[in-house]
Design a protein that fits this description.
Blueprint lengths: L1 H5 L7 E8 L6 E9 L2 E10 L7 H21 L10 E2 L8 E4 L5 E8 L4 E2 L10 H18 L18 H14 L9 H14 L1 H5 L7 E3 L8 E4 L5 E4 L6 E3 L1 H12 L17 H15 L5 H5 L1 H21 L12 H17 L2 H16 L1
Antiparallel strand pairs: 1-2, 2-3, 3-6, 4-6, 5-6, 7-9, 8-11, 9-10
Helix pairs in contact: 3-7, 3-8, 4-10, 7-10, 8-12, 10-11, 10-12
The structure holds 2-acetamido-2-deoxy-1-O-phosphono-alpha-D-glucopyranose (GN1) and magnesium ion (MG).
Length: 373
């Protein structure tokens, strides 16, 4: 089947290996290795999850606009270290190939040049160089934002409506409970009541977006494994997984980045004692991020930075629980209670964060003061 897709690409050389990559929760990803003139060249082939992305054409349009902009900015700045994804066009010059499968359904594929000699992490817990990696992660996501600072959000389509709309996510949870598709909600009455008590505080970004909080072009899925780090230097090289590039708040990217990169555990760790936010990594991340973004962040954005970490974790709590109650229709799962484990993981992480907000806030204020000197 993959060969049928690849017939539509003019890739030189012989295909010698196809490896499936299972790290993402949404799309299907393959790494293809070709040999050409005794050299190995790799590509990334992805099947876009069209249940999640109803309009893949628009997703690809967003990605093409953003990657063109970034590569031009990198060229202008003579930055040959940092990279961006590059789309491999089909023989017809398109950024995506539409395949009609045996059942007459459309499947959407796109290819990218593979960025080699890099590694992506799901968590830094096993790394000896975690502090530097966290700093580099914050810096890279900050740099990514800086490169897009002059790119108008109005050029991009909102391909998943209300993606980070906290109230909408909250209402989705209530709806899933009401619909009783499964009876799983009964097991979480304590947690659900607690989540209801937090919705007001956690709606701050959604309520103020486009008003006191500026609308920018944002990544919206700044999970740790969506950044490639140089294997040797541990520097951030490229931000990947650009499907959710949309208008949004920089606070979504910051909060999601820290909840993911600075947690002590993987997103599905079940040992409660291991689930907490690492303050050392959080500070390193914030430092890197602020160094890159301080020149354009507004006071209002700075004010809500520490709260954004909680808000984005809260959002994942809602989303994993909703999907579990709905019978696992959104996130890929590897076993029956996977979404339940992810839910509890993010819930315990959220509870831990609540005790750390003050220290994070103080750190942000100090760092901002020093950088502005
Ligand atoms: C999904 O595809 P992946 O694994 O990078 C999800 C994110 C969640 C994340 C949680 C389009 O990201 O929003 O934060 O899982 N992406 C989409 O692990 O829903
Ligand atoms: Mg994704």
């Amino acid at each position: 089947m993959i060969n049928k897709i690849l017939d539509n690409y003019n890739i030189k050389g012989n295909l010698i290996n196809i490896k499936e990559d299972n790290t993402g929760n949404i799309n299907k990803t393959y790494i293809l290795t070709y040999t050409n003139d005794n050299k190995q060249v790799k590509y990334l082939l992805q099947k876009i999850n069209s249940n999640v992305f109803n309009e893949p054409y628009l997703v690809m349009r967003n990605i093409e606009l953003v990657t063109n902009h970034i590569s031009k900015k990198l060229k202008d700045a003579d930055d040959y270290n940092y990279k961006t994804l590059t789309i491999v066009k089909t023989n017809d010059g398109l950024n995506m190939y539409t395949y009609i499968n045996e059942d007459g359904e459309k499947e959407y594929y796109r290819a990218f040049h593979f960025i080699d000699n890099c590694i992506s992490y799901d968590n830094f817990k096993d790394s000896d160089d975690a502090l530097k990696l966290a700093y580099e992660t914050g810096k890279s996501f900050g740099y990514f934002q800086r490169l897009l600072n002059d790119f108008s959000p109005s050029l991009l389509t909102e391909t998943i409506t209300d993606f980070h709309n906290t109230k909408k996510r909250f209402n989705d949870l209530l709806e899933s409970i009401e619909n009783k598709i499964t009876l799983r909600a009964y097991d979480f009455s304590y947690e659900i009541v607690d989540l209801i008590s937090k919705i007001k505080e956690c709606s701050v970004i959604t309520d103020n977006l486009g008003k006191s909080i500026p609308l920018r072009v944002t990544h919206n899925d700044t999970k740790l494994n969506n950044i490639l780090m140089d294997k040797k230097t541990n520097e951030g090289i490229a931000i990947i997984d650009l499907d959710t590039m949309m208008p949004g708040s920089i606070l979504y990217d910051l909060g999601d980045g820290i909840r993911s990169a600075c947690s002590n555990s993987f997103e599905d760790e079940t040992d409660k004692d291991k689930i907490y936010l690492r303050l050392d990594l959080t500070k390193a991340y914030l430092k890197g991020f602020l160094e890159e973004t301080i020149s354009f962040l507004t006071d209002e954005e700075i004010k809500y930075m520490s709260l954004s970490i909680k808000i984005l974790t809260y959002e994942l709590v809602l989303r994993f629980l909703t999907d579990y109650i709905n019978g696992d229709t959104y996130f890929k799962i590897k076993y029956e209670t996977h979404n339940k484990d992810r839910f509890f993981n993010q819930y315990y992480l959220l509870l831990d964060m609540e005790n750390k907000t003050k220290e994070i806030d103080d750190f942000i204020m100090d760092t901002v003061k020093n950088l502005k000197k």
